[in-house]
Write a structure and sequence with these properties.
By secondary structure, this protein is mainly beta. It has a single domain, classed as Acetoacetate decarboxylase-like (Beta Barrel). Strands 1, 2, 3, 4, 5, 6, 7, 8, 9, 10, 11, 12 and 13 form a 13-stranded mixed beta sheet that branches. The radius of gyration is 18 Å and the shape is globular. The N terminus is likely disordered.
Amino acid sequence: MPLELTAMSFDSDRIVDLIDRSSLTQRPLRRHVMYQEWRHLTFLHWEVPVELLRPLVPRALELDLYQGRAFIGLVPFTMCGVRPIGVPSIPLFSRFHETNVRTYVHFQGRDPGVWFFSLDAANPLAVVLARAWYRLPYFHARMSLIRSGFQTEGSGEVVTYSSRRLRSGSSPAECRVSCRPGGPIAPAEPGTLEHFLAERYLLYTEYRGRLLSGRVFHTPYPLQSAEVLDLEETLLSVAGLPRPDHAPLAHFSPGVRVRVYPLTPVP
């Protein structure tokens, strides 16, 4: 009997244990619609109480937990080579910085993915198109990325991201993160925390009360350890998320090339 039909007979931890986390890493058979490159990613994660996070996620989705623990993430990076199939890269559109705030969910014991609370991008056209095509909560922001003190990739460099949302209202939505990438870590395997946090190939969004999902495909992230040198942000609180007092778990990746697939309704 399919898992989704028997989910009520399991507790939530048991459902999470049974989720297939490998099949979504395979390249979909259907046609993709866009190319992207995600570069200089810093993954910052905090564990948060399930009972505080649950009301902020649509009822149709369940929180995806790692050993009973829920996580929220803050991920600044740079978009490169953004272009639809058959269209060359356009400099004013194809490269810009982005920062997303997210958590992890699944649908009826399958299809683990990402729920975005916000996505800030430094390209106003990209913001408009992403809101229209992908129904995601994008916001226009002034952003920068500075790489300093490095001799070779990942050798002593410091990566500093800055972001300030434009027209953010009475509560400033901003972020400044400085981190020092460390050495490479072993490839993230299913079952590890690194795989749970980084290897996500499905997003969920809602539009007019309807749940939608979108796929991406890329090779696994080449992950590195990372040391957070400085962190000031209000993006989590603006999204209604509790930010713990302790330092985040940090990872860095030089990046991956990505194929993006169209949104589809969740049955």
